[in-house]
Amino acid sequence: MSVRPDVMTESVVDRPAPKRPYLKGRWMDLGERVRPLQGLLRWRSFQFLAILPNLFLFYFFILAALWGTPVGNRNIMIVFVWILWWFILITLWVPLAGRLWCTMCPIPALGEWLQRLRLVTVRFASKAKGFKNVLFGLNRKWPRALDNIWLQNLLFLTLATFSALLVTRPIVSAFVLGGMIVLALGLALVFRHRVFCRYLCPVSGFLGLYAMTSSVALRSRDWDVCVRCPTKGCMLGSENGWGCPWMVYMGKLDRSNYCGLCFECLKSCPNDNIGLFVRPFGVTETRILHLDEAYKAFIMLVLAAVYSVTLLGPWGTFKDWANVTETGDWRGFLAYAALVWGACLVAFPAMYGLLVKVSQWASRWRGRRVLVPASASANGAGEPDFRTLFLRFSYPLVPLGLLAWIAFSLPLFFVNGSYIVSVLSDPLGWGWDLLGTAHVPWKPLIPEWVPVLQAGVLLGGLAVALRTGWAIAWELWRDPRRARWGLAPMAGLWLMVTVGFLWLFTG
Amino acid sequence: MRWKDGLKEGVALATLLLVFVGLPWALRAYENGQVRRLATGRPVFTVYANAAFGTWTTTPLVGWTYFWRKPEPAHIQVRAGQPFVLRITAVDVHHSFGIPQLGIGPYDVEPGRFLKLELKVDEPGLYTFMCYTVCGRHHEKMMGTLEVVGEGQ
Amino acid sequence: MVRNVLVTALLVLAGVGGGVWWARSTAPPQEIVVDVEARRYAYEPPVLRARQGDVLRLRLRSTDVVHGFFLEGYDLDARIVPERPDFEVWRPSEVQWAEAEKRGELPTKTESSVEVSSLQGIRRVREVVLRLDRPGRFRYRCSHTCGFMHPFMQGELIVTPNYPFHVGVGAAIGLTLAFLAWRPVDPSRRRGTSS
Ligand code: SF4
Ligand code: SF4
Ligand code: SF4
Ligand SMILES: [Cu+2]
Ligand SMILES: [Cu+2]
């Protein structure tokens, strides 16, 4: 692996090279290449117009859930949200564009519009101290103790426990969706900015985590410009754009987790210093900084396995446990819930931690006679502590988990895709036939090729995990022998996970 | 606020309001049109087949009522010799609909689909419609009544 | 760099080869008779295992409501009505159940057995016979809406040699070993090593 110079530096020969510490490998400033794109993203009406069709659709889905047939596979709520939307989200938007869904997401829109008292334009008070935009509401600050994604993790796990009900009953989906909208609205009136998105939205947690892999990222084009920038418009707002609703400061941002791609900073930055970059998938942003993020990676990976067993597996018992309102088997449901929570929060993290410990011992043992050069040990390289290892090695689980989710979603879409065609013609199960396709029979698409595709996707995930894991081990130990021994237990874990999913999907 | 901004906000707000009011209205209007076209002046009855209670019912069982409404067994009243339309749907599993005394059916009733029957009964009386496919624990008692009222009654 | 790519290619190839070797089998073909019981929302047995060349005789029953049995890869669909010893079968590539039913083309008599490969139209049978000539993993899914979890009602037929699985595992092992054998080539990161 060789580090190439940023290809964009060629075009700015007469200026000193911009400071872009986040660059690794090949990045391309899309906005600079494709000028109309930068213009579009800076256009004030852009986000409103992106949200509008989705708001319309989600409103339609909720109406369909209330008024339409309770039969899930004949109701557009279930078919479009849990087959089409989910599939597009996980296989296209997240790997290609990270949080691009958050750009057009209608859930927090009502709250944000109320907070701003504007739909497209900006309110600006030049004399205000701090934030330059006036927001409606109590404008409270979010408590510091909750400035993490633990709440998201717990909320997501709670929803996941009831997922068998959520993805099969239109009305449950409507309540969850409506509940999210109402909660976002309420919080917008109490707190400043999008605290719902940042700290509570169950979708947000995994969007943020998996956005680390995405091929698109928003960054400050030159950190030096930001250092000299007096207004900090991206964070505080300006007459052209709102201060970042996600409470992100662009001048130091090198991770995509919490940037909701609302593109306000493109508008509010007076120096046109924000660029939308294209980068290789999965390998450039590998720093997990906090335990809550590492746990998100565990939770997502374990849940992919859990759903593969309960929803896509052949075993009726698990389905009966998860489908509790119909079977009334509350004891089974409790066992199922305990299993899911235990696996996500205790069993998997414990196993992972143990392997990290083994990795630490192995590398230490292998390097017992190797002198760590003073230059390396001084800045902490060469003898990483347990916490560092635990956090750094949790990143490869991110591409691994994302691709496991993609593999999980493939049959969902290919098998049930024909419901999309028929539901389009009869969205509420009212006996309509808008397009003449209402009676297209259910028929899986290329079902016998799905396992092959799944195996390929899983192997791809393993390759990216190993590739990033190898780079991380190298960064941590800076010594090939110790890096190799330190990597081995972790690689063993990734292999085990891959083989497990291979068995679930193809075995 | 500059007038241009005001205009933009106005247009955006109007679009939003249009969506919020227009969509439910459009759905209702289209559905009513469909039913009216089907009816062509005849009375239309919508019957829902429910396996959890084992009933044919005219209580609307849609997304938000299905989980808490107790469906009453259907009792449909028509005048003898008057044409009428039955729209029959299932809200859970397969059922099949038939009225043995009149030699109607059995017809399959699929979940989330509508079976449309155009009927006319000349002989006054009380007819029972039943389910011809085992559909769960309460299948045996799954019955509804069609009351055909004679001229003088 | 070249070395790393070569090592990776070699080890993955070795893994694939190992997988193929692991998957193949030499046992003689046999005849398997299975009673499959459908209920909301699973089949019993949930997994059918067989070898390529085997003959599979399936008898389908339902214990609660109407279910289907759509078997991938073998072009078979069935409708299972509860409390009946027989069931209707057809080839979904040729027949559409809903349309045939609308035209009143449903069978009236019950046959004892039919082979899928020679199946035409909709037939009512007590047993359907499959010659398992295609290896791999094939799911059988419910094709008649039978309740909330209907889209997830499925079982699986595994006909060995099941290459995607065995080759996948082989390749995964090869890939993992390859990365453990990788050598750093990045000169900008060679600082501070003692090698
Ligand atoms: S964080 Fe959640 S609610 Fe907020 S924009 Fe993203 S998906 Fe929507
Ligand atoms: S406003 Fe622009 S230049 Fe100033 S800190 Fe933000 S991104 Fe940097
Ligand atoms: S940094 Fe903030 S303002 Fe800029 S796109 Fe991301 S969320 Fe929006
Ligand atoms: Cu019934
Ligand atoms: Cu079924």
List the helices and strands and how they pair.
The complex is a heterotrimer of chains A (507), B (153) and C (195).
Chain A: E1 28-29, H1 30-33, H2 35-42, H3 46-67, H4 76-97, H5 100-104, H6 109-116, H7 150-161, H8 163-166, H9 170-190, H10 195-200, H11 202-211, E2 216-220, H12 223-228, H13 233-236, H14 264-268, E3 274-278, H15 291-310, H16 316-322, H17 324-327, H18 330-366, H19 374-378, H20 386-392, H21 397-425, H22 450-477, H23 480-506
Antiparallel strand pairs in A: 1-3, 2-3
Helix pairs in contact in A: 3-4, 3-9, 4-21, 6-9, 7-11, 7-15, 15-18, 15-21, 16-18, 18-23, 21-22, 21-23, 22-23
Chain B: H1 3-39, E1 44-50, E2 55-57, H2 63-66, E3 75-79, E4 84-90, E5 95-99, E6 104-109, E7 114-119, E8 125-131, E9 143-149
Parallel strand pairs in B: 1-4, 3-9
Antiparallel strand pairs in B: 1-2, 4-7, 5-6, 5-8, 8-9
Chain C: H1 2-23, E1 31-39, E2 42-44, E3 47-51, E4 55-62, E5 67-68, E6 70-71, E7 77-80, E8 87-90, H2 97-102, E9 110-111, E10 114-115, E11 123-125, E12 128-131, E13 136-141, E14 154-160, H3 163-181
Parallel strand pairs in C: 1-4, 3-14, 9-11, 10-12
Antiparallel strand pairs in C: 1-2, 4-12, 5-7, 6-13, 7-8, 8-11, 13-14
The structure holds iron/sulfur cluster (3 copies) and copper (II) ion (2 copies).
Brief characterization of the structure:
Chain A has 23 helices and 3 strands.
Describe what you observe in this structure.
The complex is a heterotrimer of chains A (507), B (153) and C (195). Chain A is an all-alpha fold and 507 residues long. In chain A, 59% of the residues lie in helices and 2% in strands. Chain A contains 23 helices and three strands. In chain A, strands 1-3-2 form a three-stranded antiparallel sheet. The N terminus of chain A is likely disordered. Chain B is of the alpha+beta class. Chain B has two domains: 40 residues; 108 residues, Cupredoxins -  blue copper proteins (Immunoglobulin-like, Sandwich), CATH 2.60.40.420. In chain B, 27% of the residues lie in helices and 35% in strands. Chain B has a five-stranded mixed sheet with strand order 3-9-8-5-6, with no helix packed on it. In chain B, strands 2-1-4-7 form a four-stranded mixed sheet. In chain C, α1 packs antiparallel against α3. Chain C is of the alpha/beta class. Helices cover 24% and strands 31% of the residues of chain C. Chains A and C meet through α21, α22 and α23 of A and β2, β13, β14 and α3 of C. Bound molecules: iron/sulfur cluster (SF4) (3 copies) and copper (II) ion (CU) (2 copies). One copper (II) ion binds next to loops of chain C. The site of one copper (II) ion (CU) has 5 residues of chain C, from loops.
